[in-house]
């Protein structure tokens, strides 16, 4: 490694130490827990106080794909895919539109608007859930009051037909600011000469968007899509706080893992079992990995065109 490649360090020593520490932290806090979860998924662990536990092979996986849990698991899988696909598509589309609007130099106060758009991202899950619980309060919330003006009312998060879509709406509201920032960075990196040349060639706003903006934003689109998919597939806190943990209409895989590991009820398909929860999390890991890798491969091919 040449000396100039050691920036921001003056020599290779601090660079190697920093890299070693980072590698050790990654190994301890990422690889070790991942391997531990895989091992636990082959046991009948039910509460830490019962350690050491019994090795049961593939029994948890056979139980997961068996008839006894099939209805609940398919329901959780369906909700997870709906949550991930809808939240990602809407979030990316909305964020791109907002970013283009906020990138307009003629827009007055655009820095204030950028701060407002990014603000929900820093509120945290609990505060966000509290805000929207009040907004959708069934007895006096502002949205219910508006519906009452038209002679309508709703149970909102208590209505299992629409609860999942309301959680998706809140999820988009909470994380959209991050996607906007990524798109803004991509937009500001596009050379203005490209717009000037395309304008001379007679390209209108739509043609410039299609043939200049979108291709140049491909790396930002890839980053946002992957972040959106991974966040959505792993999200459970918002659903837990807004709708509770055991509602079929909003049951997703990550929430199922949490309930199975820490909050299940005896005598039900969600009875507490850390071994079974670990098996579900491994199924979720494979699902997230397959979807992420397939999406990344598709987006990379599009970037290279």
From TrEMBL:
<feature type="transmembrane region" description="Helical">
    <location>
        <begin position="21"/>
        <end position="42"/>
    </location>
</feature>
<dbReference type="InterPro" id="IPR000515">
    <property type="entry name" value="MetI-like"/>
</dbReference>
<feature type="transmembrane region" description="Helical">
    <location>
        <begin position="115"/>
        <end position="135"/>
    </location>
</feature>
<dbReference type="GO" id="GO:0005886">
    <property type="term" value="C:plasma membrane"/>
</dbReference>
<keyword id="KW-0812">Transmembrane</keyword>
<protein>
    <submittedName>
        <fullName>Sugar ABC transporter permease</fullName>
    </submittedName>
</protein>
<keyword id="KW-0472">Membrane</keyword>
<keyword id="KW-1003">Cell membrane</keyword>
<feature type="domain" description="ABC transmembrane type-1">
    <location>
        <begin position="77"/>
        <end position="295"/>
    </location>
</feature>
<keyword id="KW-0813">Transport</keyword>
<keyword id="KW-1133">Transmembrane helix</keyword>
<dbReference type="InterPro" id="IPR051393">
    <property type="entry name" value="ABC_transporter_permease"/>
</dbReference>
<feature type="transmembrane region" description="Helical">
    <location>
        <begin position="211"/>
        <end position="233"/>
    </location>
</feature>
<feature type="transmembrane region" description="Helical">
    <location>
        <begin position="276"/>
        <end position="299"/>
    </location>
</feature>
<dbReference type="InterPro" id="IPR035906">
    <property type="entry name" value="MetI-like_sf"/>
</dbReference>
<dbReference type="GO" id="GO:0055085">
    <property type="term" value="P:transmembrane transport"/>
</dbReference>
<comment type="similarity">
    <text>Belongs to the binding-protein-dependent transport system permease family.</text>
</comment>
<feature type="transmembrane region" description="Helical">
    <location>
        <begin position="162"/>
        <end position="190"/>
    </location>
</feature>
<dbReference type="Pfam" id="PF00528">
    <property type="entry name" value="BPD_transp_1"/>
</dbReference>
<feature type="transmembrane region" description="Helical">
    <location>
        <begin position="81"/>
        <end position="103"/>
    </location>
</feature>
């Amino acid at each position: 490694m040449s000396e100039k490649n050691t920036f921001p360090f003056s020599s290779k020593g601090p660079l190697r130490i920093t890299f070693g520490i980072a590698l050790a932290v990654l190994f301890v806090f990422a690889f070790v827990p991942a391997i531990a979860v895989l091992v636990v998924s082959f046991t009948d662990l039910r509460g830490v106080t019962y350690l050491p536990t019994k090795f049961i092979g593939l029994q948890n996986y056979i139980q997961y794909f068996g008839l006894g849990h099939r209805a609940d698991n398919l329901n959780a899988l369906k909700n997870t895919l709906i949550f991930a696909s809808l939240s990602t598509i809407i979030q990316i589309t909305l964020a791109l539109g907002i970013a283009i609007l906020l990138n307009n130099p003629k827009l007055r106060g655009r820095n204030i608007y950028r701060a407002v758009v990014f603000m929900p991202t820093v509120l945290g899950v609990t505060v966000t859930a509290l805000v929207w619980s009040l907004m959708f309060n069934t007895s006096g919330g502002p949205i219910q009051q508006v519906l009452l003006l038209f002679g309508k009312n709703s149970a909102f998060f208590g209505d299992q037909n629409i609860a999942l879509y309301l959680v998706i709406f809140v999820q988009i509201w909470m994380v959209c600011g991050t996607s906007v920032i990524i798109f803004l960075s991509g937009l500001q990196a596009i050379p203005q000469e490209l717009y000037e040349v395309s304008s001379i060639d007679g390209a209108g706003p739509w043609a410039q968007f299609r043939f200049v903006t979108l291709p140049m934003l491909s790396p930002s689109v890839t980053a946002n899509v992957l972040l959106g998919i991974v966040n959505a597939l792993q999200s459970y806190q918002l659903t837990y706080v807004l709708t509770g943990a055991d509602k079929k209409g909003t049951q997703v895989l990550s929430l199922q893992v949490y309930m199975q590991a820490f909050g299940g009820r005896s005598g039900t398909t969600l009875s507490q079992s850390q071994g079974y929860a670990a098996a579900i999390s491994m199924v979720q890991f494979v699902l997230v990995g397959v979807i992420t890798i397939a999406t990344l491969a598709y987006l990379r091919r599009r970037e290279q065109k």
